[in-house]
Amino acid sequence: MLHHVKRLRLSALLIAGCASHITAASFDCSRAATAQENAICADPSLSLLDEQMTAAYKALLAQLSPSAAAEVRQDQHEWLRWLPQVCPNHPEQPARKITTCLLSEYSEQTASWKDQLKRSGGITFFPRIKVIALADKENSIPGLMRPDFWTARLSWPEIDRPAPQQAAWNAAVRAQVAGWKQLHSAEATVSWELQGANQQFISLGLVNSRYNYGAAHPYEERRSFNWWVALQRPLKAEDVFRPGSGWETLLADRCYAQLMSADRARDLYDGTTVRKAVPDAVKDIGNWSLDARGLTVELPEYSVAPRAAGFLSVLIPWNQLRSRLTPAFDPAALPEPASTTKASP
User: Fold this and answer.
1) Helix or strand or coil: residue 289?
2) 314 - beta bridge partners?
3) How are beta strands 186-197 and 149-159 bridged, if at all?
4) pTM of the predicted protein model
5) How far is Cα 116 from Cα 114, in angstroms, rounded to an integer?
6) pLDDT, tens digit (0-9, with 9 covering 90-100), for 121-160
7) Residue 193 backbone phi and psi in degrees, to 5
8) Domains of the chain (ranges plus CATH)?
C-alpha cells in the first residue's frame, strides 16, 4: 500500500463530463485498462457499489446551490485522486485484496453522499469531505506496521446558501475539523452527527476515530461543537450557567446519580472511580450537547467504563438546572433534537 501507483483512471469516469466513454452510471468495462478498473468490472458487488455511489453523488448535486455543488465536486475529485494511494495494485498481492480495499472505500464514499443532506430549523446542511494520504519516511517510528504512511478521511457539514452569520459557522466548523488532520502513523476518520439546529443555535457532534498502526483497536474521541449563530462564536459555560452558582457540582451529582442507577451501574468501573471522573467530564464543554430537552453530557471513552460499554451519556432536563441558569439563557430558544425533527422536503 506504500508503493507509488498509477493514477486511477476509472475514478474520473464517475464524474459527469470528466470522461469520454461513460455508457451508464459508471464506465465502459470493455475499455478497462488498470488493475482497479478490472477489479470493478470483475466483481458484481463492487460494480454495483460503483453505480450506487455515482447515483448518490448525482442526486446530492441536484439538490444543492451552484456554490455548494462546486464544493462537493471538488471534494469528489480529491477523493478520486486519493483512492489509488490507499487501494494500489501490488504485483505480488492477490487481486482480491484490491477488491476488498475498493469495496471498503466505495462503501464509505457512498455513505458520505447518500442521505447526508440534512434540514433542521429552516437550515440546509450539506456534506463535505477531505481526504489525506501522506508519507513521512524521515519520521518513521520503529515497530509499526506502516510507520511512514498515514491516511485521514475528514467529514463535516456546511450550510448551503448561508446568511452572513451562518457563513461564520461554516468557516468555524472547517477550522475545527482541520485541527484533527495531523495524524501521523495512523488511519483516522472524522465523522459527524447533527444534534440540533435552528436559526439561533447549532449543536454538532464530531467523532475522531483513529487507528494507530500496531494498536489492538481504534481510539475514539467525541466532541460537540456548539455554536451561537447570532453571536458568531462557540458556546461558553457562562452563556448557560451563572458563575459561582455551583453548577459544576450540580451537573456532577446528576450525572453520577444517573450513571450509578441499577440498569447502568453494571457497565461501569467502581463507584469511586466514576465519582472522580465525572467532575472533569461535566466541566468540559466539548462533552456537552444542548437542545430543547436539556443538557446532555457525554462521558469520554475509558473515563467511567471499559471500552466494551461504549460511550455513555446523561441527559439532564432544564427544569433540574433552572436555579443555576443565567437570566439571559432561554432553553425555549434551543432547537429540538435533530433525531426528532422532521426533515422538510
Assistant:
1) strand
2) 297
3) parallel
4) 0.83
5) 5
6) 999 999 999 998 876 544 444 433 444 567 889 999 999 9
7) -145, 125
8) 1-113 (no CATH), 116-235 (3.30.565), 237-340 (3.90.640.20)
